[in-house]
Design a protein that fits this description.
2 copies of one chain form a homodimer. The first copy, chain A, has 12 helices and 12 strands. Chain A is α/β, with parallel strands linked by helices. Chain A folds into 3 domains: 47 residues, Orthogonal Bundle (434 Repressor (Amino-terminal Domain)), CATH 1.10.260.40; 132 residues, Rossmann fold; 131 residues, Rossmann fold (3-Layer(aba) Sandwich), CATH 3.40.50.2300. In chain A, helix 1 crosses helix 3. At the A-B interface, helix 4, helix 5, strand 2, helix 6 and helix 11 of A face helix 4, helix 5, strand 2, helix 6 and helix 11 of B. The first copy, chain A, binds a DNA duplex (16 and 16 nucleotides) through helix 2 and helix 4.
DNA sequence: TTGTAGGCGTTATCAC
DNA sequence: GTGATAACGCCTACAA
């Protein structure tokens, strides 16, 4: 092996004694359109195989203004929910010839903005984004530049950006209702990032369930500020410290639930005997926790597949999706972290 | 706002009535080198800010043969270990101006090969890879093309590719020794992908620990073929079905341990009372499992930081790292999944 | 059926 | 101090 240099079409052209255009046409499957002779085709293809030629997507991207690349902008790839999303997205994208450029925003607006620039500078064809907070200028900027963008999980309802998300309201409503049906009246809500749509919707579902069952909603029952274990832990401590401590806790995220469990463990409080717990979001460890956790499962795979499909179809057809909004159903997974306080009716 | 079009240097040049060269030089911080007048500089910079100019990395990449992009090729991004690696890598890379192109190989050689081509076609400057199996032609191909490459977690010892990994041998040795010290003699080993280095090393550590304690090693005690929950589950079933069933199980991966727990749960076997368990790899849920799992923790963050640093330094200096091999220490995290069979000496 | 030339946006080189 | 030009590798309208 002599060369350490990736062969270009020019190299092939020189070798077979033809022009670069012919090589390009053959290798792009346009031989028929140009009625290129069988012999020439064979010649070109053989040379390509022999040298292991593959097209330079950078050059092609510059020429075509299409890079076959999608930017994926998410808050925390180490969170099981988002890493599952990422896996499905990457897979779906690769099957259609797209590469995924990953950026982790750490739920920080500043980082989100920088990361977005990083992606735009690389001329990604489209974006899949789970934004930090409310509609922000930089996200809209991307849209204004006509970069196709689909929101995942978190979305804006005061804009016309397409999105795929979970029915967070219904999920939280179902979970809270379950707690109420089990006899709980004092139910704490451990929230995540307050500005994020999923959190708002979950909170709304929680409140609505209380209201529908004629239970007054106390503001002090809602605690927390971030989708993090430590935040769930601190929030749980605060709630359990209160005079009329809740008999049940609804955690708006899987990490939040984890923090709650740690707090309970530390206080010697048993779940569900002393405190009941439901966590939003399902994950492989939930059934093996102490106790097995009752959760609200999201259709992670469907979300990711649908969002990728919407975006890629958009990229290939040039037309924004007609069904702009997709809200997928959750499922209440009953396990063993909720106590029955009063006998069922 | 009139234009939906990302401004180019040409646009700026036209606006300020100067040549593209000047614009390029100012915006690349080479004003001093070319003694460009203060006034011109200000003019250019103002125009740039006004139009929100940012450089087109595709064009620049073509010209410079550097894309400021790193390919990350890992077996399973939904696995907590790898998603933690990915997060740290992405972070470190972005701080130095690099974007990460993510590919998930699903522990499939075919996919790995395709994904690698995808990355190479996009002219990534370097690669961070956790390969499927033994040194394979396509990985070596990348090296032959002088694309800097650092292996993470999984590596080859019959090549001179730099790598960062865990001391898997020692970790497994420590874990197995702990089981032995607790009085266990019949210890099963639930392995992952047999060809992968981490798995080989862990198996070797397990065997060595047995040997050092004069416990004969039975081949039938080693079960499993993939780093997956279902595989751990099936392997555990097989081991627990055997006539002289093990009193303890060592799972070579976190997902394997999860499968073991499910198998035990299903059989009504209690951990640690009926079977003891240690799992390689630590994760946030381990302390809250039933029972809290004794694990071998890997320094995930350090691995990822070191590997990124090695690669990026290599890219920027043009010189391969002098310290080619890095093996970081594990830590045995004692919890509650191992029973003491005989009183300590 | 094949070739030529221009350009995608940038930067390095050389000229003025 | 500034500008023109060529080139990175590819694609395509136009020419032959």
């Amino acid at each position: 092996m002599k060369s350490t240099h990736k062969p270009t079409m020019k190299d092939l052209a020189r070798e077979v004694g033809l022009s670069v255009s012919v090589v390009s046409r053959v290798l792009n499957g346009k031989a028929a359109d140009y009625r290129i002779s069988e012999q020439t085709q064979r010649l070109v293809r053989e040379a390509a195989t022999k040298h292991g030629f593959s097209v330079n997507q950078i050059a092609r991207g510059l020429r075509l203004q299409k890079t076959k690349t999608i930017g994926l902008l998410i808050p925390d790839i180490s969170n099981n929910f988002f890493s599952s999303i990422a896996r499905t997205v990457e897979n779906a994208a690769r099957r259609r010839g797209y590469a995924i450029v990953l950026c982790d925003t750490e739920d920080d607006e500043q980082v989100e903005q920088e990361a977005l620039s990083l992606l735009l500078d690389r001329s990604v064809d489209g974006l899949l984004v789970s934004p930090i907070g409310k509609a922000s200028a930089h996200i809209q900027g991307a849209c204004a530049r006509n970069v196709p963008l689909v929101l995942v999980d978190r979305f804006f309802d005061d804009h016309d950006i397409p999105y795929v998300t979970t029915n967070n309201f219904q999920g939280a409503y179902d979970g809270t209702s379950h707690l109420i049906n089990c006899g709980h009246r004092r139910i704490g809500f451990i929230q995540g990032l307050p500005d994020s749509k999923p959190n708002c919707e979950r909170l709304r579902g929680y409140r609505q369930a209380l209201r529908d069952h004629r239970i007054p909603v106390e503001d002090s029952w809602v605690q927390g500020a971030r989708f993090e274990e430590a935040d769930g832990y601190a929030s749980a401590q605060r709630l359990l410290d209160s005079l009329a401590a809740p008999t049940a806790l609804f955690a708006s995220s899987s990490l939040g639930a984890l923090g709650v469990m740690r707090a309970c463990l530390e206080r010697g409080l048993r779940i569900p005997d002393d405190v009941s717990l439901i966590g939003f979001d399902e994950y492989p460890y939930a059934p093996l926790l102490a106790p097995p956790l009752t959760t609200i499962a999201q259709p992670t795979r469907e979300i990711a597949e649908l969002a990728s499909r919407m975006l890629i179809d958009w990229l290939e057809t040039g037309e924004a999706p007609t069904d702009r909004v997709h809200v997928l159903d959750t499922e209440l997974v009953l396990r063993n972290s909720v106590a029955q306080l009063t006998p069922p009716a």
